[in-house]
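pipeline/complex-builder :: batch 7 item 3
reading input block
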Amino acid sequence: MINAPFLILFAGAAISWFFPAALRKPVLLIFPVVGLLNLIALDPSQSWTVSLFDVELTLFALDRLSFIFGVLFHIAAIIGLVFAWHVEDRPQHLASLLYPGSALGVVFAGDFLTMFVFWECLALSSVFFITARGTERASRAAIRYLVIQVVSGVLLLTGALFLFHDSGSVAIRALSLDEPAGLFFLLAFGIKAAFPMLHNWLTDAYPEATASGTVFLSAFTTKVAVYALARSFAGLDMLIYIGAVMACFPIFYAVIENDLRRVLGYSMINQIGFMVCGIGIGSELAINGAVAHAFNDVIFKGLLMMSMGAVLFRTGEMRGSELGGLARSMPRTTGLCIVGAASISAFPLFSGFVSKSMVMSALLIEHHEWVWLAMLFASAGVFHHAGIKIPYFAFFAHDSGKRPREAPAHMLIAMSIAAALCIGIGCYPWLLYDNLPFAVDYRPFDIPHVVEQTQLLFFSAMAFIWLQLNGLYPPELKSTNLDSEWLYRRAWPSLYGRLCRIAGWGQARFYEAVGSLTNALAPPLRKQAFLLLMPWSVREMLMILMILLAAILFLLFLHRPL
Amino acid sequence: MRARFNSLPPRLKRGLTVFFVLCFAITLADLVVHKHGDHWWNFFGFHSLYGFVACVILVLVAAWMRKPLMRDEDHYD
């Protein structure tokens, strides 16, 4: 089936390889536009199935859930490519089609093996956006990112193999944690969705990518995981609580984080928390809310990432402590950033409001009052760190003295497209509602909702002003805050070093003991040399060989654990 | 706090005063808006109070978290 969405973007990457850099950019942009038109025209009954040995693989299948994600990923690719118009290097150009193509491959996959292949393609293609930064720090972050993403893929493959072993089919379906495969899938999806304690790859790697790379990265990987969770774990109660934790804990980190793109990384985990929570509730309203919020998040988080990317591109700086006062020389970027900030904060008439309120309403309908209160806290918090902190410390606050030029025209165009979508969907949500997985019977603009949300946000802003005027707001400081990455960047290497030293000491003692034993036994044994000339049975020979091999293995293990 | 407020540029002071009046007005809207459901939090000014208190707690706890968690910028390098 030649018009499968992923094939169009992969073909675009292959064809663009042969064009010189100047021509390559328009060529790259043609393919997601064609892909989007193709997707809209596709017949939902179409599918593409191939047989591999005994396994039936579905490379393409279309329904309402995959359709909306497919549209989203095409739009994100188009906006990302316009934003990245200044980029000249070939790896990033290829990645800008291969990465969205892989994401499309996952959402249109009909079985877990196909999903696994595209899952790994996502990891491999996206890493180029980080390595392209060209710094030692970015390269190391890229390796950590890749290892964690590949582990997620391996868990997915293990789950698929379990599933095949148990049921003889790898078709994508709803899963439960009662079957062994379920846990592997949940972990695989959970890593990519940045579940608590599995989240640190996101805040580690995204801020290290190039100015335009982070825009791409923020759009696809985590949303693919949200899609996968919605597909297989809708209604899993545990996800409600995981989502609530995801929505709440990152906002504390976001308040004290200095790197503004890392603040947005934490904010992204917070927003995915709302989606995961919606998926956990599992009702039609909640799933619609989760999917709609994923759609809006890609656009408004992309807009915020783009505005910060523009600042990074112009100033080479991303630390809040070194920025401030840029509104004077970058007024358009400032305005567009504020649109993104209003959208993520869920102000009425901006896109976040029409989707987040669906998840919040679903929580109350299903009687999760305490979770609702936690999510309300997270809603107030997101306005605080993403809605106020990002624009305030970058464009206002103290004057850093920097007077960079306004962002280039292509960046302003990309940001304007995203801002128009934020306002368009915010004012006329039926653009989005009509394409959600289930029919929508929800009125976002009823008066109590609008009033309560406005009260919440206004008084969050009031708290910010009050804290600032009282000198209680923590200043931006050049710093690193310890997070779960400390476990694998500091604690494990240190523990491993100690284990090696203990093993080395044990090994030395062991060799000494063996040496003195051999010295002591050598003279009497020499007299018994005839033992070696005795006829030995195959069984005895094998036994001795096994013992020798096991001893060698043990010695090797002592020498280098793992 | 009053001293800091008075030291702000006049335009900002005017803007903030308008904002405070708006906050007050939107809270008063609770008197006329009929709220959904029968929840214990459906009392006058809940969302205003919750938004303010939640953000103050958020910032104070986050500032306290710096003590155990904050390291040098090049901690991992």
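note: Chain B touches chain A through 48 residues (CB under 8 Å).
queue -> next item
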